[in-house]
Design a protein that fits this description.
The chain is of the alpha+beta class. The protein folds into two domains: 82 residues, Phosphorylase Kinase, domain 1; 139 residues, D-amino Acid Aminotransferase, Chain A, domain 1 (2-Layer Sandwich), CATH 3.30.470. It is built from six helices and 17 strands. The radius of gyration is 19 Å and the shape is globular.
Length: 299
Amino acid sequence: MTTIPVTDYGLPEGYTHVYSGKVRDLYRTPDERLLFIASDRISAYDWVLPTTIPDKGRILTKLSLWWFQTLEGVVANHLETTAVPKSVAGRAMICEPLEMLPVECVVRGYLAGSGLADYNATRQICGNGLPPGLVDGSLLPKPIFTPATKAAIGDHDENVTFDEVVITIGQEEAQELKRLSLDIYRRADALAHQRGLILADTKFEFGFGTNGKHKGQIVLADEVLTPDSSRYWPLDQWEPGHAQPSFDKQFVRDWLTSSASGWDKNSDTPPPPLPDEIVEKTRAKYIEAYEIMTGEKFE
């Protein structure tokens, strides 16, 4: 299983390391809030790679902040301030502590990824029955809520049914997660279409506010609608029947599974470092996604 080394960000005294995920590092602030730091780490095939992508954490943070602002009035979010220690400025935000719900809230509008594999095997995804004849990249009859369990680092998230979510967190909470997730997806996909993009699928994380202004509310947390948590495709190149070009780490996946890398993704051997060309192409793709979606230049 991948282990994540703790990065020394040179934070002031009083910041306590809580957790490190594949990309994000979480610290408790001196006043008991949470500092979310987006690193430049990149993962693929359940491994955190030894090579980083310059500016990736800053891009993810800026895009999440843009979406939090865009979705104001639609759903509460955990952001409190971007006034963070200087050493992590631009890649971090201070957030409200939440009681996180143990569900990855995945919404799919198109057939791809693990959803495609499930459909090909069973003609359904997470209990959602689908018509015959769909192919890689097909538009689904309507967006569907396809939740998953949160897996440990190095393990796969496991798709589950809505009924299993109800058993885990309760009927009322499960219904609200489904409603919010589908509502956010539809709004985001409509906005993406205006920018010439397709939002094929995405995942959200939510938690309960435990005190303060969001006490008792379901609150949107972590990152939102970034190329790490979402599958964006260029609208003018959409052609069902094969894998679509995407605004994410596809260059990394393609290189790792090519003969050039010399790596077997089914082995227990860690992946090799990425070539400079793959790093630069991947960085450029993240920047392109940010600039197209927001209409802003990444500086």
